[in-house]
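Form 7-S
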Amino acid sequence: MLTGFFALLLCLWVGIPLDVNAHRGWVGRWLSEQLGRVVHLEGAVALEVGIHLRLVVHGLRIQQPQGFIGSDFARVGELQIRLDLLPLWHRQLRAESLSASDVELTLIQADSGQANWIFDSANETPAIDTLEPPSASALTRISISNTFVLNDCV
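Output:
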């Protein structure tokens, strides 16, 4: 009995990886709703359950907002988000850290002054039974590596 308890404690400390590729569509739709942009998940999606949750997404693409043409707004080779468990009981996501690698951003500002890097979801009505988006104020660590930014004015 005591051995089982310590085994469970060790698993929580180290983390148990889960393959959640079967739920990629749901994760992509949820991210699209939160960002107000179409999000494509092109690679593997994994979740590690332990003291914290860690979501790892490979091959993330965020499309340009309406009114902007051309390539995607962002491409991310790998995105890792570390989430706190306790807020999930209150249907809130609190991201502790975010790390992204192999990031390509295309920043465009139109003659009208409208910029594609401004996310405006004020006109959208969120679904009643959804999780609240991660709080940026809760982030204690953001890491972005291998970044390429293309700045374009139209």
